[in-house]
Design a protein that fits this description.
Shape: globular
Number of domains: 1
CATH class: Alpha Beta
Distance between the termini: 35 Å
Strand content: 25-35%
CATH superfamily: Peptide deformylase
Strand order of the largest sheet: 2-3-4-5-6
Radius of gyration: 16 Å
Order of helices and strands: EHEEHEEEHHE
Helix content: 25-40%
Number of helices: 4
């Protein structure tokens, strides 16, 4: 089942997600539906708050990035084979130089900005079988994970850009909140404020 993706301005995107247990209702179905929703919207990551669930769950599949001409064969191979489910994730370390990359978000259609993040992360999480993992990632994989991890912390990529850039995209964000944005996937928009 394809979920509607929650648009910018919805309060669920600002909630810190709750940890879940193996007994979370229909967890396998939720995860499968999130993958279907992400692929339908041509995304490389999707977090539970983006489908209206304030829980610590996100998924990543970096294969679409593997076709870039800017990558070495080794990087392309890593990206092609990287598909993971992260439950109750905690980034325990971010290290290395900060580097910029032009990010977008399914909850914020038609907005892309350069965001600076550390190049390497150490993350603890449970996979879909509730097996605990501690892993280290760098490069684009780390970036996608950091972006999705921000979602379960109630943070959006637009929080990480300059005030000037925030001013420049203000109208686009307002249009998303008012349901005027029309991406080619289903969205659930925040209700426009009354009295405007």
């Amino acid at each position: 089942m394809i979920y509607p993706i929650v648009g910018y301005g919805d309060p669920v995107l600002r909630k810190v997600g709750e940890d879940i247990t193996q007994d979370y209702p229909n967890l396998n179905e939720v995860i499968a539906n999130m993958y279907e929703t992400m692929y339908n919207a041509h995304g490389v990551g999707l977090a539970a708050p983006q489908v209206g669930l304030a829980i610590r769950l996100f998924i990543v599949d970096t294969e679409p990035f593997s076709d870039s001409d800017d990558l070495s064969k080794e990087e392309a191979k890593q990206l092609k084979g990287f598909k993971k489910t992260f439950i109750n994730a905690k980034i325990v370390k971010e290290e290395g130089e900060e580097w910029g990359f032009n990010e977008g978000c399914l909850s914020i259609p038609d907005v892309r900005e350069d965001v600076y993040r550390k190049e390497k992360i150490t993350i603890e999480y449970f996979d879909e079988n509730f097996e605990k993992k501690t892993e280290i990632y760098d490069g684009l994989i780390a970036r996608v994970i950091q972006h999705e991890y921000d979602h379960i912390e109630g943070v959006l990529f637009t929080d990480k850009i300059s005030m000037l850039k925030k001013t420049l995209i203000k109208k686009k964000l307002q249009n998303i909140m008012e349901g005027k944005s029309r991406p080619d996937y289903r969205m659930r928009f925040a209700a426009p404020k009354k009295g405007r």
